[in-house]
Write a structure and sequence with these properties.
The protein is 80% helix and 0% strand. It contains 3 helices and no strands.
């Protein structure tokens, strides 16, 4: 949006949003809905499903903790730590 557009009376109104940007609005609503559904399915329903198929609740807790660690960037941290340790060991072997 340019500076000239912000001087219009309709700028920033719901009327302007639904009149000229309704496709973008629906796209944002769709992405938000899909993201919310995915979050629910992974964090809430998967735990319920695993418990209902007969897996012990302690095991389900470990599975979900592992998943949260992995999805929250823990995998990247672990990967970088392993690479750094592996690289350090390889460099020492090459120097000696």
């Amino acid at each position: 949006m340019s500076h000239e557009d912000s001087d219009k009376e309709e700028s920033g109104s719901l009327k302007e949003l639904f009149k000229n940007h309704w496709k973008t609005f629906l796209l944002v609503v769709g992405y938000t809905s899909a993201g919310s559904l995915s979050f629910y399915a992974i964090t809430v329903y998967s735990k319920t499903y695993l418990t209902n198929i007969g897996i012990d609740s302690q095991t389900v807790g470990l599975i979900m903790t592992g998943w949260y660690f992995y999805s929250d960037g823990g995998a990247a941290i672990l990967r970088d730590f392993i690479r750094q340790d592996w690289l350090k060991n390889r460099c020492c072997c090459l120097v000696v």
